Amino acid sequence: MSENQNPQPSGDVTPHGGDGTLAQVDRFDDPGVPEHKHRLADTDPKAAKRNERLIALIFVISCIGTIGSLVAYFAVRPDGTTAGVRTSTMLLGVAMAVSLLGIGIAAVHWAKTLMSSKEYTEERHSSSSSDEVRSAVATQFQDGYKDSGLARRPVLLGSVGLALALFPLSIAVPLVSSVGGDWNVGKFRHTIWKKGVRLAYDPSGRLIKASDLTVGSVAHVIPDVSEEERESHEWITEKAKAVVLLVRLDPRDLKRDHREGASYDGIVAYSKICTHVGCPVALYEQQTHHLLCPCHQSTFDIADGSKVVFGPAKRPLPQLPITVDDEGYLVAEDDFNEPVGPSYWERLK
């Protein structure tokens, strides 16, 4: 290593002792504050004005984003279809992103181009400052305020105030408008699964025969409903509650059903909605027969009644009882044996 790559501290240095101890460094020279380099906006009033206008423009764009999020929230409501939910969510998210990013980008550009860039140092002192020190700090704040030129930039102050005042509306308005909505939690106790409803692949809707599944097969399942029901406003909500993960095990590996007699020839069906906070449980490990929730690593053993073997979940996944009809298609024998998803008030179990 060259001398330039291994600088030595100045001051008194205790040499290595015979016992191999390292040298002690008494002190380093204070490098001091580097020379202040003026920016273009510091020396050119026109450049400072350009930056001020640019920052104000970005704040105004942020305001437009906030207004756009409110328009998207009220004018483009989800219509119950996948496309409608996607469009509404995308417009709302883009508008809120423009609003928040506008504030952030403008603030960063303001700090880099117009705020004071001088470095100040202060010697360490006791926690109780003297009157002289407090007076000096107050003077430094006043100097910093003067250096920032805030008093000379009313347009900039107005634009940042407007952007910061408007942005909370993009969050507050949807929250306030949801007050008084549907708070009937009883609807979570049941899904559209019922006796005789056939199991279909998600999202194709193709029916599933027991003979189609080999040991180790995994299928994402939804109820087989009519085309008219698929186009209804309620379908998205009902589908979200009724999604199922279907797995075929070797019957010899099946220790027990969560719901006695609910499986068919080693084929078990469990809700995909984690009983912790409702994330989709869909990671299946074939050798251990474990289902893993990717959000918080709750793990369920589907060969043993879907009992929890790891993680924060407290209850097994609800099981859908299944059998086959006269044509060999898998059908539900009833709804889930308990409400799906995480705990909520008024839940009996």
Automatic annotation (TrEMBL):
Keywords: 2Fe-2S, Cell membrane, Disulfide bond, Electron transport, Iron, Iron-sulfur, Membrane, Metal-binding, Oxidoreductase, Respiratory chain, Transmembrane, Transmembrane helix, Transport. Gene3D superfamilies: Rieske [2Fe-2S] iron-sulphur domain (2.102.10.10). The chain crosses the membrane at residues 54-76, 88-111, 155-176. It holds the Pfam family QcrA_N. It comes from Isoptericola hypogeus. Signal peptide: none annotated. This is Cytochrome bc1 complex Rieske iron-sulfur subunit. Residues 1-44 are annotated as: Disordered. Residues 26-44 have a biased composition (Basic and acidic residues). Residues 241-331 form the Rieske domain. Residues 1-11 have a biased composition (Polar residues).
